[in-house]
Design brief:
The complex is a heterodimer of chains A (387) and B (294). Chain A is α+β, with helices and mostly antiparallel strands and 387 residues long. Chain A is built from eleven helices and 19 strands.
Chain lengths: 387, 294
């Protein structure tokens, strides 16, 4: 499987004055499912296309399986690709679309037929082999594109936002199918997306990009729990992490516009404090915590997103179940390890520890951040007058 | 009587169709019918009524060796201009669709012959073909070769007319191919590049089939033009020498306005219409089945 190792060394892509990809390096081990994640224009697709050979790197080197492929044409790199638009040939039947590459590589007809039968079975297209792409649904077209990638038996498959043309429900089905196919065939996949849900649910590893550079490279768990920058923090998670500017207070850094209580050491002032909505707990206005006012709530079924105002800032909290809290005063807190500090440039600070906002004597309760039910019971008398 | 909603819609539709219907009837269908009728009668002399002669006019026409010569000329002209101009148009379109310095300028240059009126283009080519002072013979002379009488030599004249027509038509057809090529998503090329498909193979397996609707359209247009456009003959050869470059429509014109034989002109016109109708039907039924429309 070593022929499927991909290594990028200081790869740069420039178009005249615009820098699309700026000096990035990473290494993909065989069998890994790697996600290139980032907002549009961050250079993730360009990076993928440089690996594919559809764009030439301005500088740097790309190695596949120990071979320097930087200047090789796409067909000689031993990889297949699934395009966002699927790139199916509209005049060819599903079967001809799937074996298109085999014909180009002059695979004997008998073998073509065998491989086609096997792959069609794998992606559940056997009944549709005679149809034209226009007669297929979006999900089926997606499968044809996958089949075309799989039948080539290249160990590497590149995918460029393959699910973005599907509706939400089909997308979650295809997510699981692609992931299952990848582990079953032990393919090395580099997958480009701007959807953090896809990144979190499919990737063994996520490379987050911004402005042509890598912001963070780690497992989904690392990206979620230890974001390397304020950008990473705000990009992963839905709703995104709350970022609150910190100002200098009397006993430490405080949330701007809310002088008590201090939430972090004084050194953190000028930076930002990040807390995920699911880590925020609501407490009665008489309890310890940061004073907040409930602005509104969005009920989503399993949980409720509560919009809170602190000082001049708003933040979101996710509570399980249904809540009706609009207009009420409360206090909020979060577990110490759920608070992240970022400096003025947005970089993560690990040299400072945020102050504890724990309730005195309530440590056991606060150690589990998502204990929504216990919070509601705490709040009950003041916050639920209508009950 | 009250009109139902359905009747009203029908009336509404009819009224919308009326302007086009009136124009087409006046200038296309009625003249066609009159022509067919004329071809079945002999005009009477000194006010006598026209005499119905059935297919006699056609028999006379088919016995006329000049007609067959002109028909043969037209066939050679069609075979000479249609495939050449289409192939040339496709090559030019592929060329200017690629990455190319000064692409806009080259496209404009290729399209220029199309915006020239046929008469003007023929006048330009008149100077190219002129025996003594013409461009081609000057070039040949510079190479030490003796000149050719491009339009005066019966064995060369039709070829000269064909070359000029191809020059005039190819740029026009190129525009259609160019538009069609730009409608082909670039990912198709990328997807086939990833499989190591050669450019040649990609052209025949993807580009050409996807251009089929355009080819069909261009083919029909080229065919119609091969019969319909004879303006250049008025300038270049007037059908001569000895009918060597005479084409069917020009022969119709000669019959009608030089020989004042309106009946013969009508008869030839009907023959042209029939032949065109048959060829167009064949093309649409045979090629249409093998053409992919997006």
């Amino acid at each position: 499987m070593s022929q499927s190792r991909i290594r990028l060394e200081r790869v740069t892509k420039r178009w005249d004055a615009t820098m699309a990809v700026d000096d990035i390096s990473f290494d993909v081990t065989p069998g890994q499912f790697v996600i290139l994640l980032g907002p549009s224009g961050c250079g993730k697709s360009t990076t993928l296309r440089m690996i594919a050979g559809l764009e030439e790197a301005t500088s740097g080197q790309i190695h596949i399986g120990g071979r320097d492929v930087t200047r090789l044409p796409p067909g000689d790199r031993g990889l297949s690709m699934v395009f966002q638009s699927y790139a199916l040939f509209p005049h060819l039947s599903v079967a001809d679309n799937i074996v298109f590459g085999l014909r180009s590589r002059k695979v004997p007809r008998q073998e073509q037929r065998q491989r086609l039968a096997k792959v069609a079975e794998l992606v559940d297209l056997t009944a549709y082999l005679d149809r034209k792409p226009a007669q297929l649904s979006g999900g089926q077209r997606q499968r044809v594109a996958l089949a075309r990638a799989v039948i080539s038996e290249h160990p590497i498959c590149l995918m460029d936002e393959p699910l973005s043309n599907l509706d939400a429900r089909l997308r979650s089905d295809m997510r699981r199918e692609i992931k299952a196919l990848q582990s079953r065939l032990n393919m090395t996949v580099v997958y480009v997306t701007h959807d953090q849900v896809e990144a979190m649910s499919m990737g063994d590893r996520v490379i987050l990009m911004q402005h042509g550079t890598i912001v963070q490279d780690g497992t989904p768990d690392e990206l979620y729990n230890r974001p390397a920058s304020a950008f990473a923090a705000s990009f992963i998670g839905s709703p995104a992490m709350n970022l609150l500017p910190l100002a200098a207070g009397e006993q430490g850094a405080v949330i701007q516009g809310e002088p008590t209580p201090p939430v972090a050491p004084l050194n953190a002032a000028g930076g930002q404090l990040g807390v995920r909505p699911e880590d925020i707990e609501l407490r009665p206005a008489s309890a310890f915590g940061v004073l907040a006012r409930v602005l509104s709530e969005e009920y989503l079924g399993a949980d409720t997103i509560v919009h809170l105002a602190i000082g001049e800032h708003t933040l979101r909290a996710r509570l399980t179940g249904k809540h009706a809290l609009a207009g009420q005063q409360c206090r909020i807190g979060w577990p110490t390890k759920a608070a992240h500090l970022f400096d003025a440039n947005g970089r993560r600070r690990d040299d400072l520890t945020p102050y504890s906002l724990d309730l005195p004597g309530a440590e056991s309760q606060l150690s589990s951040p998502l204990s929504g039910s216990s919070q509601t019971s705490l709040l009950a008398p003041q916050l639920y007058p209508q009950h | 009587m009250t009109l139902t909603a359905h009747r009203k819609m029908q009336l509404y539709g009819t009224l919308l169709l009326l302007p086009a219907a009136i124009l087409l009837t006046t200038f296309a269908y009625l003249p066609t019918i009159t022509t067919v009728i004329n071809s079945l009668f002999l005009p009477g002399f000194r006010g006598a009524p026209a005499e119905f002669v059935g297919v006699e006019n056609y028999q006379v026409l088919f016995d006329d060796p000049t007609f067959w010569k002109v028909a043969r000329n037209n066939l050679i002209y069609a075979l000479g201009t249609i495939p050449t101009s289409i192939a040339l148009a496709l090559v030019m379109a592929l060329f200017v669709n690629g990455k190319l310095r000064g692409r806009g300028f080259v496209r404009m240059a290729y399209f220029t012959p199309t915006i020239l009126p046929m008469i003007a283009a023929a006048n330009i080519w008149m100077f190219f073909y002129a025996p003594q002072i013409g461009l081609f013979n000057k070039l040949l002379g510079a190479l030490g070769l003796s000149g050719i009488n491009w339009l005066g030599d019966p064995s060369v004249a039709l070829g000269s007319v064909i070359v000029m027509s191809v020059w005039k038509e190819a740029g026009f057809f190129m525009i259609f191919y160019l538009a069609a090529l730009q409608g082909i998503p670039p990912e198709l090329k990328e997807a086939s590049d990833l499989e190591g498909t050669s450019r040649w193979s990609f052209f025949w397996r993807v580009t050409f089939p996807l251009l089929m609707p355009t080819t069909l359209f261009v083919l029909i247009n080229a065919l119609i033009n091969a019969v319909r456009v004879v303006d250049h003959l008025f300038i270049l050869t007037k059908g001569g020498p000895n009918n060597a470059t005479n084409l069917l429509l020009y022969y119709v014109y000669e019959n009608a306005f030089s020989f004042f034989d309106r009946t013969m002109a009508a008869t030839i016109t009907v023959v042209i219409l029939l032949v065109l109708a048959v060829v167009a039907t064949l093309k649409f039924t045979i090629l249409d089945r093998r053409t992919h429309y997006q």
